[in-house]
Amino acid sequence: MGGCCSSTPLEIDQQPPQQPQIPPGERKNDEVIKNDGFVNWPFTEFFLSDLTAATKNFSSDEIISENAEESSNVVYKGRLSENLGFVAVKRFKNTPWDDPDYFTEDAKTAGELKHKRLVKLLGYCCEEDEGLLVSEFMPNDTLAKRLFQEKNMEWSMRLRVAYHIAEALDYCNSKRFDEYHNLSAYTVLFDKEGDACLSSFGFVREIIRYNRREGGNVSTGNVTYRFGTILLNLLTGVEIRPSHALEMINGKDVTELMDPYLKGKFSTEEATVVLKLASECLQWKDYIENRITKELVATLEALQSKKEIPSSQKSETTKLQEEASSSSQQQLPP
């Protein structure tokens, strides 16, 4: 892939053009960019030397990827300059593109996707047989880590995550962009507000111009099927191979499937709705995705409106403070 692109060097103190800034978390037509340092950052073609320096020569100490499904590729944490926030840099160990222009085309197309539930893709590098992608850095880990390892996610937060990812997929379908590589709990990330976002790296195909869908059949690589697997992850707290997802729920009641770490603190009614959605996604054979994503958003949004859901997990200190405050108020005279 040598000489596939010409890159412009990034000045160490380069700043994007000054425009009215969007305050962190403020929404504008369902679009938001939450990383303060990259609010107005233009999609950039990076020099390999910039990304090498940003990741400390691709140091193993800077590796942040966890996904076993993508063992051939690595994601690093990096910093372009002191004036900017951290970035995530995905480096492809193998370069399967027959024509590097496909990589460039996919990266630029993915860079146009902007939504509050998508991690912003900042740019790419295509130089010296290297293919790299650069996105905002999400500081609060992946859904996989919080759900499978830390095992501390409350039911309300699980509902919130499901809703956020459904929003992301529905937005992508509205933009006629329904391809996603390996949607899973590893590609769901949490921003500094604690909201779930979908990694932008999955929008760039690693093997060009092939169609792995089989007409009329359920494919475990299908985005809707993968979302059904994520719903099962949220219900059970268990990492599930997509190919085993349907087998796991067959003939089982929702109470049998629920994550024991929830200790019964969940709504059986809501869990039943989520399980029904998961089952429908895992058996979805019609590849016109936008219809089902709209249904998913509507159903999951209705579950959100039943009660106020925190944007992130409350710390034990915060909970103790609230309990103390509540107790103090109860002792006051009428």
TrEMBL record:
| Topology within the bilayer | Lipid-anchor
What function does this protein fulfil?
Serine/threonine kinase that acts as positive regulator of brassinosteroid (BR) signaling downstream of the receptor kinase BRI1.
What keywords are assigned to this protein? Answer: ATP-binding, Brassinosteroid signaling pathway, Cell membrane, Kinase, Lipoprotein, Membrane, Myristate, Nucleotide-binding, Serine/threonine-protein kinase, Transferase
Gene source species:
Arabidopsis arenosa
Listed InterPro entries: BSK (IPR045845), Kinase-like_dom_sf (IPR011009), Prot_kinase_dom (IPR000719), Ser-Thr/Tyr_kinase_cat_dom (IPR001245)
Q: Where in the cell is it found?
A: Cell membrane
What is the designated name of this protein? Serine/threonine-protein kinase BSK
Q: Which SUPFAM superfamilies match?
A: Protein kinase-like (PK-like) (SSF56112)
This protein's major location comes to: membrane
Ranges where the Protein kinase domain occurs: 61-334
Q: What is the lineage of its organism?
A: Eukaryota, Viridiplantae, Streptophyta, Embryophyta, Tracheophyta
Residue ranges that the Swiss-Prot or TrEMBL entry lists as coiled coil: none
**Segments of this protein annotated with the region Disordered:** 1-31, 306-334
